[in-house]
Design goal:
Elements (H helix, E strand, L loop, with lengths): L3 E4 L7 E8 L2 E8 L7 E14 L5 E6 L7 H10 L2 E6 L5 E3 L2
Parallel strand pairs: 4-6
Antiparallel strand pairs: 1-5, 2-3, 3-4, 4-5, 6-7
């Protein structure tokens, strides 16, 4: 069974889930609505496999880890070129940029 990410389309702290195509793979991205001066904060969750609407306005995405065929360096450069800043969000929605 694939991991699932449960979310509302936009959370109260401004987090949302996007899917962007990268080299034919649907990247599942956790982003923040408000861009910072360096770009829009983003965390790559993996490759999206299925989206489902559940009761109460929640959505579920199933996803798989990034395949080894995806170059993380190339992906990071591509995301930066599209205005994103790669990093991770903690459980409170705080963002830490990747080193």
């Amino acid at each position: 069974m694939c991991p699932q990410l449960v979310f509302r389309k936009v959370t109260p702290d401004g987090l949302l889930v996007e899917i962007r195509d990268f080299e034919g793979q649907p990247l599942l991205l956790l982003t923040q609505q408000k861009p910072s001066p360096g770009g829009r904060p983003i965390q790559v969750m993996g490759i999206a496999t299925e989206e489902q609407l559940a009761m109460g306005g929640n959505w579920y995405y199933e996803y798989m880890p990034l395949p080894r065929s995806i170059s993380t360096h190339k992906m990071k450069s591509w995301l930066e070129m599209h205005g994103y800043v790669l990093g991770v969000f903690d459980q409170f929605g705080n963002f830490r940029q990747a080193a």
